[in-house]
Every structure is written in structure tokens, then in C-alpha cells.
Amino acid sequence: MADILIKNITLMETQPPFTITEGADVVITGSVIEKAGVGAGAGIEASKVIDGSGKILIPGNVCAHHHYYSALSRGMLISAGPQTDFIQVLKEWWWRLDRALDEESIYYSSLVASMEAVRAGTTGIVDHHASPAFIKGSLSAIAKGMEEVGVHGVTCYEVTERNDGINEALAGVNENIRFASEIDRRAEQGEDVLTEAMIGAHAPFTLSDEALGLLFDATTETGRGLHIHVAEDKYDSIWSHHFYGDDILARLCRFNLLDEKTLLVHGVALSEKEVDMLNERGCFLAHNARSNMNNHVGYFPYLSKVKKSVIGTDGCGGNMFEELKIAFFKNKDASGSWWPADYLTSLSRGNMLLESAFRGRARFGRIAPGYKADLVILSYAPPTPLKSENAATHFVWGMCSENVESTIINGRLVYENHHFTALDEERIFREARRVAERVWAEADSIKA
């Protein structure tokens, strides 16, 4: 007997080639899709049957770069100084917040960020974490929240020397290795683990060559890819030229940190030559339009040249419908040449990133046999014909997170008819508010 049978629904594939299949069925057994297509449910009995009439089924969206701890920053009341440039924003806001985090606040930020993502139809999240006062065990606290909500998540600790030099960098590296080993042990025991690890780093301007060497050792030891901010602002590039006499990516390349598992983030100030370099080495690059606009760091002119671009939020929530729309309109405002199909392709490529992070243990991103049952049911009634040829246009211009009716992750109905199936949302958010006030008070006491 199947676990879930979705009947008579319209399937919409969000990876090229975009296809629309009306009147289809989807059979889910365990954590994967067993059958999908017209007539696939004939003669099938299931524990749960969902009538998909008038609904649309899509693969879950993926946020390719998030900062879960930002979930507690919304409306943060602290006495911040001037924030007229990128470094001031970091010092006066984010670096005070991350120094105020502890185990409880990390856990609740993970719960809240995961729930908000699921509610918006996001089933996979790639997180990037920092908590200098609580490093060891921090990634396990994030994974705990992710798994209790039920999302497929990847996390890492951002290695940096900005507070305590090489000792801080070493502590961050050790946490990345510890967490990766924890995931390996669980997988070896036969557990279908929802979370995975990468090796995190803040940005080259807060990392010495010694720290980059430690990062290479960590990626080699764990078999994981590097997840690092690069050239978010021109300051990062200038720093590299000033102190190391080289471009950022050339410096990372000297330490063999650029390969097909590497996730670079932002890249606003990368040169065209550096884009060629990241393409040659098969790196992913996460575009975060809202965050770039908020921090006033400029627009990445070579986005269309990146072969493995993905879409992230950089901590601006987990709503990828919203992020994609804003990214699309910003591109047009900047005289860009990308169209809805380009953006939907980039968004759906986040599934390729997930597969890379999960190291072949799972397949993501299609409504097809053998793929993880990470699916979203939309109550979107197209006002014009929905065809394979215009599916991307409907996604960008018409569909939104308000259309998300139910979310299935790893074969489990996590969110049904606009409600979480196994979580006390009111209690979790009440506790999160309590924790946030405590964190704000601590952040306010920290000098920039």
C-alpha cells in the first residue's frame, strides 16, 4: 500500500524542459515518488488520498543561501550606529546579533525559519551560520530545528577570524568537521537523514592564508564543498588586491577551494575573468537580489554568464516565490536580459545544489519515480491558459506563496490545507518572541 496518493492534479515541472501534465496522479511510498503521470494511481490503495482537482503540483522550491539566525532579527530594537556602507552594516547590526546567539536562540531561529519556508512552498534550504559565543554544537541545534519541522536542510559554520583571530577560525573549522562526522554516522546507521553539511566560511577579507589552508583540509577530510561569501561588496575585492595582490577567486584557487561542490555567494564585485574561472571549475554561485539591494552593494552585471547560478535570500526569509519576483524585476530595472524561464531555471537548479550536498544519497527537483517526494500543492487558478511554453511566466507573474495549500517533504505531509500537521505553531512563535527579546537585549549591550 502506498503512503500518499494524489489524484487528478496538474503536474508542473519547474526544471527545463518545463512541462504541464493535466489529470495526473502521483503515488508516494516512503520518502520517494513511486509513480507519476496520467493513470498512475489506477488500482492503487493508499493510507492518504488527496483530491488534486483544480490544483497544481510542483517540486518544492529551494533556498540556495540563507542565514537562519536572521529569523530573530526582524524588527530588532538595538541602538545601532551609522550604517552608511557595507562594513558598518555588518559591524553595527549582523556581527552584534551573531555574538548574542546561544543554543536556545539558534534552535528557535531554526524552527521559525524552517516553518516560514515550508509555509511558502520551500522544501530545501542551504543555511550559513555564525554564533561566535556558541560555536561547538551550534550546527546540531540548527539541524534539530530543521528536522523537527521536516525540511531538507544543509548547514555550515562560517569560519572567520574577525573576533579572535586564528583560534576562532580553528573553532569554526572543528565545528564543521564535527557536524559532518555526525551526519556520516547517522547515515551509516541507515537513517534517512534530512540534513547535510558543507564547510562554511565568512568571506576572504576576514580569512588569512592560514585559515584558508584549514578550510582546504576540512573539505578534504569531510568530502564536503565550501560555502563562502565572495565579493558581496567591492571592499572584499579591494582587500584582496591590497593585502594579497590578487583577485579573490585566484586566491581561493591557490588553496584548491574551487570545485564543482563549491557554493560561492553574491559575487557582485567579481570580474568577468573571475566568472570565467568559477565556470571552468564548476562552482555554484548564489544570487541574492533583495539582500544586495538592502545593503546597497550594487548589481552583479555578469549574472547571465554564470553557468550554475542558484537563487538565495541571504537571510531575507525563505519565500522563494517572493525572492524570484524581486530578482526578476531588479534585473529588468538594471537593463538585464534574463526572462522568466531563466529565473525559474536558476531557482530550480537549487535542487542540483541539494543533490551535490547530499552526495548522491537523494535525487531532488522532479515529479518522477525515484525522486524525493518534496512537493507543493498550489491552489492557483490560472486566468489564462497554462501551457508548457508559458509555465515559467505563470510562475513569475502569477503564482505566489499565498497559493501554497499543502507541502510534502520526504514523503511526509508536513503542511496541509494551510496548517502544520504536527507542530504547535502558536507556542513556537510565542517562545521565539521571548527568546528574541533576550537576544536583542544582549546584542544591544555588545559594542560594534
TrEMBL record:
Membrane-crossing segments per the record: none
One Pfam family matching this protein: Amidohydro_1
Key words of the record: Hydrolase
Record GO terms (molecular function): hydrolase activity, acting on carbon-nitrogen (but not peptide) bonds
SUPFAM superfamilies reported in the protein's UniProt record: Composite domain of metallo-dependent hydrolases, Metallo-dependent hydrolases
InterPro entries: Amidohydro-rel (IPR006680), Aminohydrolase_SsnA (IPR017700), Metal-dep_hydrolase_composite (IPR011059), Metal_Hydrolase (IPR032466), MTA/SAH_deaminase (IPR050287)
Domain Amidohydrolase-related: 56-414
PANTHER family: AMIDOHYDROLASE-RELATED DOMAIN-CONTAINING PROTEIN, AMINOHYDROLASE SSNA-RELATED
Protein name: Aminohydrolase SsnA
Species the sequence originates in: Candidatus Ornithospirochaeta stercoripullorum
